[in-house]
Amino acid sequence: MALNLAEALSSIVTQADAADWRAAIRLAGDGLVAGGATTEAYTDEMIDAVEKHGPYIVIAPGIALAHSRPSPAVLTGGLSWVGLATPVEFGNKANDPVTLVIGLAAKDHDAHLQVMRALAGVLSDSEAMTQLHTAATPDDVRGVLGALAAAAAA
Amino acid sequence: MKIVAVCGMGIGTSVLLKMNAEKVLAKLGIDADVEAADMGVARGAAQTAEIVLTSEELAEELGDVPAEVIIINNFFDLDEITEKLTEKLTAAVE
Question: Per residue in A79-130, pLDDT tens?
């Protein structure tokens, strides 16, 4: 739990604009590509996953975990963070609309477990999530995540 | 007891669900083996598991399985997971 999620993030974007869920996932994909975690093909794979399985990636109120399976489009694996300025509908009955999209890419089924544990810790902390949902800048996000990691390590 | 957490890809949502289910089971003092699986693996694994944890969309896709299927809306709401697991486990014992 001592892992600082901010250090695991390939990129952080806040107050982003996305016209629909595809555009929102594309932003998360762009973040993974910018960080060298994946190629652009992975972005399409994440969108295909939702087209195939439905909007189940909206795993909690306001939070979408965009991802696909390990593939050649995954270079190093990683996480990206996209805070949306305007909430976007993904078509998920229980948890729409989405204000935070996290892009996830993994090389295999086990490599990213430590990062996932840190992510689970952050996303289940409702106080931190309130701060993160309203974060105006990437540095604000890093600040909240850093404080959480420090508190978990203490 | 065997529990399967199911998602489309087997690397993201099911892993998070497995982690939180394990937290809940430990708190309840229940000895269970929780496995994360993608849809393809899950169709097989669900044949031998007692409980399947998944989301509403994927429960429809999974279709009929012998296991009890529990639909979780908020994967980070430990209270929701606790309540739904307890309900099924109590029903299973009776």
Answer: 999 999 999 999 999 999 999 999 999 988 776 788 888 888 898 888 999 9
Give chain A positions within 8 Å (CB) of B11.
Answer: 67, 69-70, 104, 106, 109, 112
Q: How many CB atoms lie within 10 A of CB B68?
A: 17
Residue B80, SS3 per DSSP: helix
Say whether residue A130 is in contact with chain B using an 8 A CB cutoff.
no
Q: Is the ipTM of this complex over 0.85?
A: no
Domains of chain A in sequence order: 5-153 (3.40.930.10)
pLDDT in tens, B1-37: 899 999 888 778 888 899 999 999 999 998 999 999 8
User: Could you confirm whether A67 is annotated as catalytic?
Assistant: yes
* Binary contact (B73, A95; C-beta < 8 A): yes
Q: How far apart are CA B67 and CA B51, in angstroms?
A: 5
CATH classification at residue B73: 3.40.50.2300
